[in-house]
Amino acid sequence: MNNLELAEKSFQLIKRDFSLEEQFDAEADNPFDRLHALLTRAIRHYLDMDFGGLMSILYRIDVSESTTKEILELSHPDEIASNLASAIIRRQKQKVETRLKYSSDYTI
What we know:
mainly alpha, globular
């Protein structure tokens, strides 16, 4: 699987979890950077408006509690959303890679 396919499948998972309306941009210079920017913006909204909802999403996505706690406690306040976005993208990429490895007909 190439990086573009991995980015698109990761984007679809994240889009569903965060109810994003944006579409995947296959023409972006770096689709993971674009995804990170979109996700960071969504997480900032959750941090400001619905912290419990964000914690629920992180649990569903399966970002470890220790990772979440470390980011919330040790990150500079201006970097929390970006660091959470990185952790979410990393976790979703792992899921996509695992599903592709064990399934010949993986779809989202």
